[in-house]
Amino acid sequence: MDARLLDILVCPVCKSSLEYRKEQKELVCKPCKLAFPVRDDIPIMLEEEARTLGQDEN
Domain locations in the chain? Predict the structure, then answer.
């Protein structure tokens, strides 16, 4: 994942910064508790595609 892209991407729901989790291939928004998938190095920034984080994943 390109570091420059990570600097400009924000959560589409709340506009907070995102954390990239390389092993899970996800961009995580902690305030919304959503994880957006990254497929073939392309972030899928659709709320419908995001999964809700479990309590143990925060």
Answer: 3-57
Determine the pLDDT at residue 50: 97
Residue 5 has pLDDT above 80, yes or no: yes
Q: What is the pTM of this model?
A: 0.91
φ, ψ (nearest 5 deg) of residue 48: -65, -25
- Which residues on neighbouring strands pair with residue 21, listed in sequence order? 26
Residues in CB range of 40: below 8 A, 6 or more apart? none
Domain topology for 3-57: N-terminal domain of TfIIb (2.20.25)
Other CB atoms closer than 10 Å to residue 26's CB: what's the count? 21
Tokens of 44: 């899928």
Task: Share the mean pLDDT of the chain.
Answer: 93
